[in-house]
Amino acid sequence: MAPRRRGVRALLVALGALLLARCDRVPLTWAAVQLMRSLWPAPLPRRAADAEAWCWRAWADAAARAPVPAPPPHVREFSPAEFAALDRPPFDTPWVVRGMLNGSRLSWNAAWLSESPGRGDQMIDYFSDARRALLVPDARGALRDVLASISAGGPQKIGSEMIFRAEPAAVDELAGHALTAKLGARYFSRAMLGTVLTMPVFAARGLPGETTRTDLHCEPIANAVLQLEGSKAWTLLSPEHSGLVRPQVSPDGRAYFHARLGHAAPELAALPVQRVVTHPGDVIFVPTWTWHRVDYVASVMSVTVSLFHFRPVDFARNHPLYAALIVPNLVKEALGLKKQ
Ligand SMILES: *[C@@H]1O[C@H](CO)[C@@H](O)[C@H](O)[C@H]1NC(C)=O
Protein backbone atom coordinates (compact mmCIF):
# COMPACT_ATOMS: atom_id res chain seq x y z
CA MET A 1 0.00 0.00 0.00
CA ALA A 2 2.68 2.48 1.09
CA PRO A 3 4.75 2.36 -2.14
CA ARG A 4 1.57 2.97 -4.11
CA ARG A 5 0.74 6.05 -2.02
CA ARG A 6 4.28 7.33 -2.48
CA GLY A 7 3.86 6.83 -6.21
CA VAL A 8 0.65 8.86 -6.22
CA ARG A 9 2.35 11.62 -4.25
CA ALA A 10 5.31 11.70 -6.65
CA LEU A 11 2.91 11.90 -9.56
CA LEU A 12 1.03 14.82 -7.97
CA VAL A 13 4.27 16.68 -7.22
CA ALA A 14 5.42 16.13 -10.81
CA LEU A 15 2.08 17.37 -12.16
CA GLY A 16 2.25 20.44 -9.90
CA ALA A 17 5.80 21.21 -11.02
CA LEU A 18 4.77 20.79 -14.65
CA LEU A 19 1.83 23.17 -14.14
CA LEU A 20 4.05 25.75 -12.47
CA ALA A 21 6.64 25.48 -15.23
CA ARG A 22 4.06 25.81 -18.00
CA CYS A 23 1.96 28.61 -16.46
CA ASP A 24 3.02 32.14 -15.87
CA ARG A 25 3.71 32.22 -12.14
CA VAL A 26 2.61 35.84 -11.71
CA PRO A 27 -1.12 35.51 -12.49
CA LEU A 28 -1.17 32.16 -10.68
CA THR A 29 0.26 33.71 -7.51
CA TRP A 30 -1.97 36.76 -7.78
CA ALA A 31 -5.04 34.56 -8.29
CA ALA A 32 -4.18 32.48 -5.21
CA VAL A 33 -3.91 35.64 -3.08
CA GLN A 34 -7.26 36.94 -4.38
CA LEU A 35 -8.93 33.62 -3.52
CA MET A 36 -7.48 33.93 -0.03
CA ARG A 37 -8.81 37.49 0.16
CA SER A 38 -12.36 36.27 -0.58
CA LEU A 39 -12.27 33.09 1.51
CA TRP A 40 -9.79 33.59 4.36
CA PRO A 41 -11.72 34.21 7.57
CA ALA A 42 -8.97 36.29 9.24
CA PRO A 43 -6.71 39.18 8.18
CA LEU A 44 -4.48 38.13 5.30
CA PRO A 45 -1.05 36.74 6.35
CA ARG A 46 1.82 39.13 5.71
CA ARG A 47 3.45 36.77 3.20
CA ALA A 48 0.32 36.74 1.03
CA ALA A 49 0.23 40.55 0.87
CA ASP A 50 3.95 40.55 -0.01
CA ALA A 51 3.31 38.04 -2.79
CA GLU A 52 0.55 40.25 -4.17
CA ALA A 53 2.85 43.29 -4.21
CA TRP A 54 5.48 41.15 -5.99
CA CYS A 55 2.91 40.39 -8.73
CA TRP A 56 2.05 44.08 -9.16
CA ARG A 57 5.75 44.92 -9.57
CA ALA A 58 6.24 42.09 -12.06
CA TRP A 59 3.36 43.37 -14.19
CA ALA A 60 4.64 46.94 -14.08
CA ASP A 61 8.14 45.75 -15.13
CA ALA A 62 6.71 43.63 -17.96
CA ALA A 63 4.69 46.60 -19.24
CA ALA A 64 7.79 48.81 -19.13
CA ARG A 65 9.69 46.23 -21.23
CA ALA A 66 6.93 45.50 -23.77
CA PRO A 67 4.06 47.99 -23.69
CA VAL A 68 0.67 46.78 -24.99
CA PRO A 69 -0.50 49.10 -27.82
CA ALA A 70 -2.67 51.86 -26.33
CA PRO A 71 -6.19 52.49 -27.63
CA PRO A 72 -7.18 55.93 -28.97
CA PRO A 73 -7.48 58.31 -26.00
CA HIS A 74 -11.14 59.05 -26.72
CA VAL A 75 -14.07 56.72 -26.41
CA ARG A 76 -15.80 55.83 -29.69
CA GLU A 77 -18.89 57.96 -30.37
CA PHE A 78 -22.02 57.26 -32.41
CA SER A 79 -24.96 59.41 -33.42
CA PRO A 80 -28.34 57.73 -32.90
CA ALA A 81 -28.52 57.11 -36.67
CA GLU A 82 -25.06 55.50 -36.79
CA PHE A 83 -25.99 53.38 -33.78
CA ALA A 84 -29.22 52.28 -35.45
CA ALA A 85 -27.23 51.20 -38.52
CA LEU A 86 -24.95 48.86 -36.49
CA ASP A 87 -25.67 45.16 -36.79
CA ARG A 88 -24.43 44.64 -33.28
CA PRO A 89 -22.73 47.22 -31.04
CA PRO A 90 -19.31 46.24 -29.63
CA PHE A 91 -19.55 44.61 -26.20
CA ASP A 92 -15.81 44.57 -25.44
CA THR A 93 -14.97 48.28 -25.86
CA PRO A 94 -16.73 51.33 -24.42
CA TRP A 95 -18.86 53.62 -26.61
CA VAL A 96 -21.19 56.59 -26.34
CA VAL A 97 -24.33 57.44 -28.27
CA ARG A 98 -24.74 61.23 -28.20
CA GLY A 99 -28.33 62.39 -27.69
CA MET A 100 -29.67 58.82 -27.73
CA LEU A 101 -32.38 59.73 -25.22
CA ASN A 102 -33.39 63.08 -26.71
CA GLY A 103 -37.08 62.96 -27.53
CA SER A 104 -37.28 59.47 -26.02
CA ARG A 105 -39.68 58.07 -23.46
CA LEU A 106 -36.80 57.49 -21.07
CA SER A 107 -36.95 61.02 -19.62
CA TRP A 108 -36.40 60.16 -15.97
CA ASN A 109 -34.92 63.51 -14.91
CA ALA A 110 -34.96 65.20 -11.48
CA ALA A 111 -38.41 66.74 -12.07
CA TRP A 112 -39.87 63.32 -12.95
CA LEU A 113 -38.16 61.69 -9.95
CA SER A 114 -39.46 64.46 -7.64
CA GLU A 115 -43.15 64.19 -8.58
CA SER A 116 -45.35 64.59 -5.53
CA PRO A 117 -47.73 63.12 -4.63
CA GLY A 118 -46.01 60.07 -6.09
CA ARG A 119 -42.46 58.77 -6.47
CA GLY A 120 -40.91 61.92 -4.96
CA ASP A 121 -42.42 60.98 -1.60
CA GLN A 122 -40.67 57.61 -1.56
CA MET A 123 -38.26 57.28 1.38
CA ILE A 124 -34.78 56.34 0.17
CA ASP A 125 -31.39 55.68 1.72
CA TYR A 126 -28.71 58.15 0.64
CA PHE A 127 -25.21 59.40 1.47
CA SER A 128 -25.24 62.60 3.50
CA ASP A 129 -21.83 63.64 2.15
CA ALA A 130 -20.45 62.30 -1.15
CA ARG A 131 -16.93 63.46 -0.21
CA ARG A 132 -16.73 60.72 2.38
CA ALA A 133 -16.30 57.51 0.40
CA LEU A 134 -18.75 55.42 2.45
CA LEU A 135 -19.86 52.06 1.11
CA VAL A 136 -23.30 52.09 2.68
CA PRO A 137 -25.77 55.01 2.83
CA ASP A 138 -25.86 56.79 6.19
CA ALA A 139 -29.13 58.77 5.92
CA ARG A 140 -32.76 58.37 4.98
CA GLY A 141 -35.19 60.89 3.47
CA ALA A 142 -37.85 61.60 0.86
CA LEU A 143 -36.49 61.37 -2.69
CA ARG A 144 -37.73 64.86 -3.65
CA ASP A 145 -36.14 66.45 -0.55
CA VAL A 146 -32.76 64.86 -1.23
CA LEU A 147 -32.84 65.89 -4.91
CA ALA A 148 -33.79 69.45 -3.89
CA SER A 149 -30.82 69.60 -1.48
CA ILE A 150 -28.38 68.40 -4.16
CA SER A 151 -29.88 70.86 -6.65
CA ALA A 152 -29.36 73.68 -4.13
CA GLY A 153 -25.64 72.83 -3.88
CA GLY A 154 -25.64 70.22 -1.10
CA PRO A 155 -23.04 67.44 -0.78
CA GLN A 156 -25.56 64.58 -0.68
CA LYS A 157 -25.40 61.62 -3.04
CA ILE A 158 -28.05 59.15 -4.11
CA GLY A 159 -27.13 55.68 -5.29
CA SER A 160 -30.33 53.71 -4.92
CA GLU A 161 -32.01 50.70 -6.51
CA MET A 162 -35.19 51.29 -4.52
CA ILE A 163 -36.62 53.90 -6.89
CA PHE A 164 -37.13 51.65 -9.93
CA ARG A 165 -38.07 48.67 -7.78
CA ALA A 166 -41.13 50.75 -6.89
CA GLU A 167 -41.68 51.75 -10.57
CA PRO A 168 -42.12 48.52 -12.55
CA ALA A 169 -44.31 50.32 -15.10
CA ALA A 170 -41.39 52.67 -15.90
CA VAL A 171 -39.04 49.67 -16.28
CA ASP A 172 -41.38 48.35 -18.97
CA GLU A 173 -40.69 51.52 -21.00
CA LEU A 174 -37.23 50.05 -21.68
CA ALA A 175 -38.80 47.32 -23.78
CA GLY A 176 -38.67 48.12 -27.48
CA HIS A 177 -36.41 51.15 -27.05
CA ALA A 178 -33.80 51.56 -29.80
CA LEU A 179 -31.07 51.22 -27.14
CA THR A 180 -32.26 48.05 -25.43
CA ALA A 181 -33.19 46.45 -28.76
CA LYS A 182 -29.46 46.55 -29.67
CA LEU A 183 -28.24 45.51 -26.22
CA GLY A 184 -30.54 42.48 -26.19
CA ALA A 185 -34.20 43.03 -25.35
CA ARG A 186 -34.28 39.92 -23.11
CA TYR A 187 -32.32 41.69 -20.33
CA PHE A 188 -34.66 44.65 -19.92
CA SER A 189 -38.06 44.01 -18.36
CA ARG A 190 -39.61 44.13 -14.92
CA ALA A 191 -39.33 40.33 -14.73
CA MET A 192 -35.52 40.64 -14.89
CA LEU A 193 -35.29 43.34 -12.23
CA GLY A 194 -33.42 41.93 -9.23
CA THR A 195 -32.03 38.97 -11.20
CA VAL A 196 -29.93 39.86 -14.28
CA LEU A 197 -30.95 43.55 -14.26
CA THR A 198 -30.49 46.23 -11.58
CA MET A 199 -31.34 49.88 -12.16
CA PRO A 200 -29.83 52.21 -9.57
CA VAL A 201 -30.36 55.96 -9.83
CA PHE A 202 -27.23 58.05 -9.12
CA ALA A 203 -27.50 61.75 -8.31
CA ALA A 204 -24.86 64.13 -6.93
CA ARG A 205 -22.90 67.19 -7.95
CA GLY A 206 -19.23 68.02 -8.06
CA LEU A 207 -18.43 70.48 -5.31
CA PRO A 208 -16.15 73.38 -6.25
CA GLY A 209 -12.57 72.69 -5.19
CA GLU A 210 -13.34 69.08 -4.24
CA THR A 211 -13.32 65.85 -6.20
CA THR A 212 -16.51 63.87 -5.96
CA ARG A 213 -15.68 60.61 -7.66
CA THR A 214 -15.82 56.84 -7.74
CA ASP A 215 -12.30 55.42 -8.01
CA LEU A 216 -11.11 52.90 -10.60
CA HIS A 217 -12.88 49.56 -10.33
CA CYS A 218 -14.27 46.87 -12.65
CA GLU A 219 -17.34 44.72 -12.37
CA PRO A 220 -18.74 41.36 -13.54
CA ILE A 221 -21.69 43.16 -15.16
CA ALA A 222 -22.08 45.48 -18.14
CA ASN A 223 -23.52 48.95 -17.65
CA ALA A 224 -25.46 51.17 -20.04
CA VAL A 225 -25.65 54.54 -18.30
CA LEU A 226 -28.44 56.97 -19.16
CA GLN A 227 -27.28 60.54 -18.53
CA LEU A 228 -30.59 62.26 -17.79
CA GLU A 229 -29.33 65.51 -16.37
CA GLY A 230 -25.94 67.22 -15.97
CA SER A 231 -22.60 65.62 -16.84
CA LYS A 232 -20.10 63.03 -15.67
CA ALA A 233 -16.47 62.56 -16.68
CA TRP A 234 -15.47 58.94 -17.41
CA THR A 235 -11.98 57.44 -17.36
CA LEU A 236 -11.89 53.91 -18.78
CA LEU A 237 -9.21 51.25 -19.03
CA SER A 238 -9.35 47.99 -20.95
CA PRO A 239 -9.21 44.70 -18.95
CA GLU A 240 -5.96 43.74 -20.70
CA HIS A 241 -4.19 46.54 -18.79
CA SER A 242 -5.49 45.31 -15.42
CA GLY A 243 -2.04 44.47 -14.08
CA LEU A 244 -1.05 48.16 -14.18
CA VAL A 245 -3.61 49.36 -11.62
CA ARG A 246 -2.57 47.00 -8.76
CA PRO A 247 -5.81 45.03 -8.96
CA GLN A 248 -7.34 43.49 -5.87
CA VAL A 249 -10.63 41.75 -5.20
CA SER A 250 -13.07 44.07 -3.37
CA PRO A 251 -12.02 44.51 0.26
CA ASP A 252 -15.67 44.49 1.44
CA GLY A 253 -16.56 41.07 0.02
CA ARG A 254 -18.65 42.49 -2.82
CA ALA A 255 -18.41 41.34 -6.42
CA TYR A 256 -15.94 43.72 -8.05
CA PHE A 257 -12.19 44.37 -8.32
CA HIS A 258 -10.71 47.67 -7.25
CA ALA A 259 -7.44 49.39 -8.07
CA ARG A 260 -4.96 49.81 -5.23
CA LEU A 261 -3.26 52.47 -7.34
CA GLY A 262 -4.23 55.64 -5.44
CA HIS A 263 -6.38 58.24 -7.19
CA ALA A 264 -3.43 60.65 -7.17
CA ALA A 265 -0.65 58.12 -7.97
CA PRO A 266 1.83 59.40 -10.60
CA GLU A 267 1.47 56.10 -12.51
CA LEU A 268 -2.12 57.07 -13.32
CA ALA A 269 -0.95 59.69 -15.82
CA ALA A 270 0.87 57.01 -17.85
CA LEU A 271 -2.03 54.54 -18.05
CA PRO A 272 -3.47 54.01 -21.56
CA VAL A 273 -6.93 55.22 -20.50
CA GLN A 274 -9.81 56.47 -22.61
CA ARG A 275 -11.81 59.52 -21.58
CA VAL A 276 -15.22 60.94 -22.33
CA VAL A 277 -17.70 63.36 -20.74
CA THR A 278 -21.40 62.47 -20.99
CA HIS A 279 -24.03 65.19 -21.41
CA PRO A 280 -27.84 65.15 -21.04
CA GLY A 281 -29.41 62.63 -23.42
CA ASP A 282 -26.18 60.62 -23.90
CA VAL A 283 -25.79 56.91 -23.20
CA ILE A 284 -22.41 55.38 -22.35
CA PHE A 285 -21.77 51.64 -22.48
CA VAL A 286 -19.19 50.30 -20.01
CA PRO A 287 -18.41 46.67 -20.98
CA THR A 288 -18.11 43.86 -18.46
CA TRP A 289 -14.70 44.02 -16.66
CA THR A 290 -13.73 47.43 -18.14
CA TRP A 291 -12.03 49.51 -15.45
CA HIS A 292 -13.72 52.85 -14.90
CA ARG A 293 -13.45 55.92 -12.76
CA VAL A 294 -16.26 58.49 -12.61
CA ASP A 295 -15.85 62.15 -11.67
CA TYR A 296 -18.75 64.47 -10.99
CA VAL A 297 -18.28 67.81 -12.75
CA ALA A 298 -17.87 70.81 -10.43
CA SER A 299 -21.11 72.71 -9.73
CA VAL A 300 -23.15 70.48 -12.07
CA MET A 301 -25.87 68.22 -10.73
CA SER A 302 -25.79 64.85 -12.46
CA VAL A 303 -28.71 62.41 -12.60
CA THR A 304 -28.07 59.03 -14.22
CA VAL A 305 -29.78 55.68 -14.31
CA SER A 306 -27.52 52.66 -14.72
CA LEU A 307 -28.78 49.62 -16.57
CA PHE A 308 -26.52 47.04 -14.93
CA HIS A 309 -27.05 43.74 -16.66
CA PHE A 310 -25.29 40.38 -16.50
CA ARG A 311 -24.05 39.27 -19.93
CA PRO A 312 -22.84 35.67 -19.39
CA VAL A 313 -20.68 35.41 -22.53
CA ASP A 314 -18.92 38.77 -21.94
CA PHE A 315 -18.47 37.85 -18.26
CA ALA A 316 -16.44 34.80 -19.22
CA ARG A 317 -14.78 36.13 -22.39
CA ASN A 318 -13.77 39.70 -21.50
CA HIS A 319 -11.64 38.53 -18.54
CA PRO A 320 -11.73 34.75 -17.83
CA LEU A 321 -9.44 34.93 -14.78
CA TYR A 322 -11.52 37.63 -13.08
CA ALA A 323 -14.70 35.71 -13.90
CA ALA A 324 -13.36 32.65 -12.07
CA LEU A 325 -12.01 34.61 -9.09
CA ILE A 326 -15.18 36.61 -8.43
CA VAL A 327 -17.34 33.51 -7.95
CA PRO A 328 -16.96 33.36 -4.12
CA ASN A 329 -18.07 37.01 -3.77
CA LEU A 330 -20.92 36.52 -6.26
CA VAL A 331 -22.14 33.65 -4.11
CA LYS A 332 -21.89 35.81 -0.98
CA GLU A 333 -23.94 38.54 -2.70
CA ALA A 334 -26.50 36.03 -3.98
CA LEU A 335 -26.91 34.66 -0.46
CA GLY A 336 -27.51 38.18 0.75
CA LEU A 337 -24.45 38.19 3.02
CA LYS A 338 -23.27 41.41 1.38
CA LYS A 339 -25.72 43.96 0.06
CA GLN A 340 -25.76 47.71 -0.39
C1 LIG B 1 -29.90 66.38 -26.18
O1 LIG B 1 -30.70 67.28 -25.43
C2 LIG B 1 -30.00 68.06 -24.46
C3 LIG B 1 -31.01 68.93 -23.75
O2 LIG B 1 -31.95 68.15 -23.11
C4 LIG B 1 -28.94 68.90 -25.12
O3 LIG B 1 -28.20 69.60 -24.15
C5 LIG B 1 -28.01 68.02 -25.92
O4 LIG B 1 -27.09 68.80 -26.63
C6 LIG B 1 -28.79 67.15 -26.89
N1 LIG B 1 -27.86 66.24 -27.53
C7 LIG B 1 -27.73 66.11 -28.84
C8 LIG B 1 -26.63 65.23 -29.30
O5 LIG B 1 -28.45 66.67 -29.62
From TrEMBL:
Q: Does the keyword Signal apply?
A: yes
Task: Tell me yes or no: is Signal among this UniProt entry's keywords.
Answer: yes
Keywords linked to the UniProt accession: Signal
Domain JmjC intervals: 102-324
Q: Where is the signal peptide?
A: 1-23
The source's superkingdom equals Eukaryota
Descriptive protein name: JmjC domain-containing protein
